[in-house]
Amino acid sequence: MSRQINQQITLKPQDLLVLFKLLAPNTSLLTYAELSTLLAISASELHASIRRAKLARLILSEPDEAVRLDKKSLKEFILYGARYVFPATYGSITRGIPTAYAAPPLVNLIMQPDELPPVWPTPQGTTRGVAFYPLYPTAPVAAEKDNFLYENLTLFDAIRGGAARERELAANLLSERIA
């Protein structure tokens, strides 16, 4: 019996990290080497992520090889599907960087509960909270260098792990940013 190879593509968490980075202004001017450095991923990981995103039709294939997001498809995926593909994963109490409702921009819009906030576990973190594992291990490093990326990732964390009101607010804010 011959063995069948699965030809189905599967998006990976780093693909969404790359797509969130590409939403930022002026990222189309960056080289792959610069982009991979900013995201703290290898150039080969970046190339593979772009390829998978093109196959998923989240990036449009341009004749000049330019990377252009299909914002309508990306918005639909992030708002309605990605939380099921990349569900929230929690850990124990730790120090880290605030995320979801405890981070900008939601921290100013949602009354903070009397409980430990969700945090990305990292030795550089200054906030004590419940570990909320980031979309990809290098996300906190990349977010440190880019506030726009940090806010996009924390809004996505609110969508994938927040209560109904948090998800709704985060979806509205992300929708505006993607448009």
Can you give a write-up of this model?
The protein is an alpha+beta fold and 179 residues long. The chain folds into 2 domains: 13-84, Arc Repressor Mutant, subunit A (Orthogonal Bundle), CATH 1.10.10; 89-178, no CATH class. 45% of the residues lie in helices and 14% in strands. The protein has 8 helices and 5 strands, in the order H-H-H-E-E-H-H-E-E-E-H-H-H. It has helices at residues 13-22, 32-39, 43-55, 71-80, 82-85, 139-144, 147-161, 164-178; strands at 59-61, 67-69, 90-98, 118-121, 127-132. The strands form 2 sheets. Strands 3, 4 and 5 form a 3-stranded mixed beta sheet that branches. Strands 1-2 form a two-stranded antiparallel sheet. Strand 1 (59-61) and strand 2 (67-69) form a beta hairpin. The longest helix has 15 residues, at 147-161. The N and C termini lie far apart (50 Å). The mean pLDDT is 93.
